[in-house]
Design brief:
Elements: H1 2-24, E1 29-31, E2 37-46, E3 50-59, E4 71-78, E5 83-87, E6 89-91, H2 96-99, E7 127-133, E8 142-151, E9 156-161, E10 170-174, E11 177-182, E12 189-192, E13 224-226, E14 231-232, E15 237-241, E16 244-257, E17 260-265, E18 269-275, E19 279-282, E20 287-291, E21 298-301, E22 304-307, E23 318-322, E24 326-327, E25 333-337, E26 345-354, E27 360-370, E28 378-380, E29 384-387, E30 399-402, E31 406-407, E32 413-414, E33 425-433, E34 439-449, H3 451-455, H4 480-488
Parallel strand pairs: 1-9, 13-17, 22-27, 29-34
Antiparallel strand pairs: 2-3, 3-7, 4-5, 4-8, 6-7, 8-9, 8-20, 10-11, 11-20, 12-14, 12-19, 15-16, 16-17, 16-18, 21-23, 23-24, 25-26, 26-27, 28-30, 30-31, 32-33, 33-34
């Protein structure tokens, strides 16, 4: 019993020294991208005296995040005149399931720097809550924000710009202060950072996925995947669901890549949702500003481009933001509107908005009504070879696809026929047109060969007279006895190493 107690005492001393060493380690911050330092801001609010930021963050693929002792999280606020950081309280949010690579085992407790294809780390207690005294911010100054995570086991500290994309500025009132939180959704670009990200129809993990266009493979068919490294500059909406942000974008069909049908930014396929762990942010990081006076509202807008007959919602293109009240787009009033959406041309919508204090702003929105484009269909067919007198149906060797109409293979016709009795190279041409009567033509060569030509390329070998009346080829001289042995012993299928 005394021996056991001594061992327990030694273990406790070693653990205490190890913990003390970790806590006194001097970390050097390394600036990285969101791909290496995953994070999510879930909420920002104020009470009478504090700004409260909640979310989660962790460093990927370096160590286990098991409890509050093996990592630390900070927020850093800075501008050219001031800089400070505040340590977060860690909270019980788990991202282990989100980061699990199915099929890989769990990493051992001492394992470090392993990719998920090798083993999976735990990501527990990665939630954070930061409380910042409001009077720590100098009134009238804007502060940018970084997030910092220190991984104690491996002794690293990663830092990256913090984003909290919002459809409009978040204005928080506390006593005589107005705290403005900015990380503009309409100024944020999303870059796809993975190759197997499916396009969702809804903002949730269990969402149905998109299928559209022609098949890319028998495995994935026409299921839609985001093209890695492509950028989405128009983000229509953000929804937080189950501690994860989802962004609504639009897509257009792109090429097949790695047997998957890919999409890039566009307007053909909507709505398309993507989860924040699979994107990198660029644009305007999180900014905090404390104001003490009322300011006039302003508009955030862009030109509206629509095709003839297309319906649009004005607030998808223009927002009204008041520094004190936040998003007041619902108060936008159209003072004039001469848009004829059925006639090609450029038009103007004049708008006005006022805040609660009577301060107002005016602006004009340009609306371009464009001719709806139409792409010619594409015919896919290749040169072929057939045997003389074969039954030949040319439509079995062609497909057609149109960007607007989809698969047009059933509408392909042939412009001529071929005579399979003639030994020759003959041309056959295909024709197809889409619903807007835009057509395409493609011709291929059909090479007709005879049975005799085909058989003449085959040499029959006899064990009694291997080369008939021909002389023995020089490259067979060294193998003659081996070949005779193979043939005489009926081992031709078991002996395939003779050159």
């Amino acid at each position: 019993m005394q021996t056991l107690l001594r061992w327990l005492k030694y273990i406790f001393i070693i653990y205490t020294l190890h913990t003390a060493l970790i806590q006194t380690t001097a970390f050097t911050d390394v600036m990285v991208s969101k791909k290496d330092l995953s994070f999510e801001v879930l909420s920002i609010e104020t009470n009478q005296n504090e700004l409260i930021v909640r979310g989660w963050a962790f460093i990927s693929y370096k160590q286990h995040f098991n409890n509050t002792s093996d990592h630390s999280t900070f927020l850093e606020f800075f501008n050219i005149k001031d800089q400070f950081r505040v340590q977060a309280n860690l909270t019980n949010i788990s991202q282990t399931q989100m980061m699990t690579y199915f099929g890989s085992p769990n990493c051992s407790s001492s394992s470090t720097y392993q990719m998920p294809e090798v083993c999976n780390y735990n990501y527990e207690q990665v939630g954070f809550e930061v409380k910042v005294p409001l009077d720590r911010f100098k009134a009238g100054d804007s502060y940018q924000t970084n997030i910092i995570v220190q991984a104690h086991t491996v002794g690293i500290s990663y830092k990256t710009a913090l984003y909290f994309p919002l459809s409009s500025d978040l204005v928080l009132s506390s006593s005589s202060r107005e705290t403005i939180v900015s990380s503009r959704l309409d100024a944020t670009e999303l870059k796809i950072n993975a190759t197997t990200v499916l396009a969702r129809k809804q903002a949730q993990k269990q969402s149905e996925y998109w299928f559209y266009g022609s098949n890319c493979s028998t495995t994935y068919r026409n299921q839609l995947f985001f093209q890695v490294n492509t950028v989405y500059r128009r983000v229509y909406e953000k929804v937080i669901n189950d501690n994860t942000s989802y962004y609504r974008v639009g897509g257009n069909l792109n090429v097949c890549y790695e047997s998957r049908r890919r999409i890039t930014e566009g307007t053909l396929i909507q709505p398309v949702w993507i989860a924040s762990p699979y994107v990198l942010y660029s644009g305007t990081p999180l900014q905090i500003k404390v104001n003490l006076k009322n300011q006039a509202p302003y508009f955030v807008k862009e030109e509206i481009n629509i095709y003839q007959g297309e319906i649009f919602v004005l607030t998808d293109y223009v927002k009204a933001i008041d520094p004190e009240e936040g998003d007041i787009s619902h108060r936008i009033v159209e003072t004039s509107n001469n848009v004829d959406r059925f006639t090609v041309g450029t038009y103007t919508i004049d708008v006005k908005v006022s805040d609660n204090e009577g301060l107002s702003s005016n602006s004009s929105i340009i609306v371009n009504v464009l001719t709806r484009p139409n792409n010619a269909p594409n015919i896919t067919a290749s040169d072929i070879k057939i045997q003389q007198f074969s039954n030949f149906d040319a439509l079995n060797y062609v497909t057609a696809y149109d960007v607007e109409d989809g698969d047009l293979s059933e509408k392909v016709i042939t412009l001529n026929s071929i005579d399979t009795s003639l030994l020759s190279d003959q041309e056959i041409c295909y024709y197809v047109e889409d619903s807007k009567y835009l057509s395409s033509t493609k011709c291929i060569i059909v090479s007709i060969y005879s049975y005799q030509d085909f058989m003449s390329k085959i040499r029959f070998v006899s064990k009694n007279n291997m080369f008939y009346n021909e002389s023995l080829p020089s490259n067979w001289i060294g193998n003659q006895l081996s070949l005779e042995f193979v043939i005489l012993n009926d081992n031709i299928l078991e002996n395939q190493n003779i050159n």
